[in-house]
From TrEMBL:
<dbReference type="GO" id="GO:0005524">
    <property type="term" value="F:ATP binding"/>
</dbReference>
<dbReference type="GO" id="GO:0006228">
    <property type="term" value="P:UTP biosynthetic process"/>
</dbReference>
<dbReference type="GO" id="GO:0006183">
    <property type="term" value="P:GTP biosynthetic process"/>
</dbReference>
<feature type="binding site">
    <location>
        <position position="9"/>
    </location>
    <ligand>
        <name>ATP</name>
    </ligand>
</feature>
<dbReference type="GO" id="GO:0004550">
    <property type="term" value="F:nucleoside diphosphate kinase activity"/>
</dbReference>
<comment type="similarity">
    <text>Belongs to the NDK family.</text>
</comment>
<keyword id="KW-0418">Kinase</keyword>
<protein>
    <recommendedName>
        <fullName>Nucleoside diphosphate kinase</fullName>
        <ecNumber>2.7.4.6</ecNumber>
    </recommendedName>
</protein>
<keyword id="KW-0547">Nucleotide-binding</keyword>
<feature type="active site" description="Pros-phosphohistidine intermediate">
    <location>
        <position position="115"/>
    </location>
</feature>
<feature type="binding site">
    <location>
        <position position="102"/>
    </location>
    <ligand>
        <name>ATP</name>
    </ligand>
</feature>
<feature type="binding site">
    <location>
        <position position="57"/>
    </location>
    <ligand>
        <name>ATP</name>
    </ligand>
</feature>
<feature type="binding site">
    <location>
        <position position="112"/>
    </location>
    <ligand>
        <name>ATP</name>
    </ligand>
</feature>
<keyword id="KW-0808">Transferase</keyword>
<dbReference type="GO" id="GO:0006241">
    <property type="term" value="P:CTP biosynthetic process"/>
</dbReference>
<feature type="domain" description="Nucleoside diphosphate kinase-like">
    <location>
        <begin position="1"/>
        <end position="138"/>
    </location>
</feature>
<keyword id="KW-0067">ATP-binding</keyword>
């Protein structure tokens, strides 16, 4: 099954947007498999964003992600990776469409409130990176037959 790692970044937590952000994925109909409030280390942040290591903004990005607690989420569903990226919107919040999380709730790339994995492979990699095995639950919601024929 396809899974994606979604994370409310420290600005989203500080601004009281956790419920709003979780709610968008919940209402869409994806399955929540993992959820926690977590203060991440510099090492974990660097591993998570390792593909961006050479970028000039990398040190600032690591400071941002480690500046306070984040909310870690694992979501499952057919097509969840691409769909979550659509719900989240463009990296630059000023270019993100209204109706998307970033488009509705943020104004700057360095404070864009939420993360979503960019491929199914990275979804699995990031869930394994941020969660321990016992923190992921597989379950069948009662609404399952009302979401898919
Ligand atoms: P994530 O979901 O957080 O991975 O964002 P993304 O996939 O939309 O963008 P990308 O992976 O390319 O960059 C990761 C994060 O680095 C972005 O969400 C921004 O917070 C930050 N970032 C990317 N590009 C820039 C930039 O040019 N300047 C600054 N200050 N931050 C950037
Ligand atoms: Mg990314």
């Amino acid at each position: 099954v396809e899974e994606t790692y979604v994370m409310v970044k420290p600005d989203g937590v500080q601004r009281g947007l956790v419920g709003e952000i979780i709610s968008r994925f919940e209402k869409k109909g994806f399955l929540l498999k993992g959820l926690k409030l977590f203060q991440c280390s510099k090492e974990l942040a660097e591993e998570h964003y390792k593909d961006l290591k050479g970028k000039t903004f990398f040190p600032k990005l690591i400071d941002y992600i480690t500046s306070g607690p984040v909310v870690c989420m694992a979501w499952e569903g057919v097509g969840v990776v691409a769909s979550a990226r659509k719900l989240i919107g463009a990296t630059n919040p000023l270019q993100a469409e209204p109706g998307t999380i970033r488009g509705d709730l943020s104004v700057q790339m360095g404070r864009n409130v939420v993360h979503g994995s960019d491929s199914p492979e990275n979804g699995k990699r990031e869930i394994a990176l941020w969660f321990k095995e016992g923190e992921i639950c597989s379950w069948v919601p009662v609404q399952a037959p009302w979401l898919r024929e």
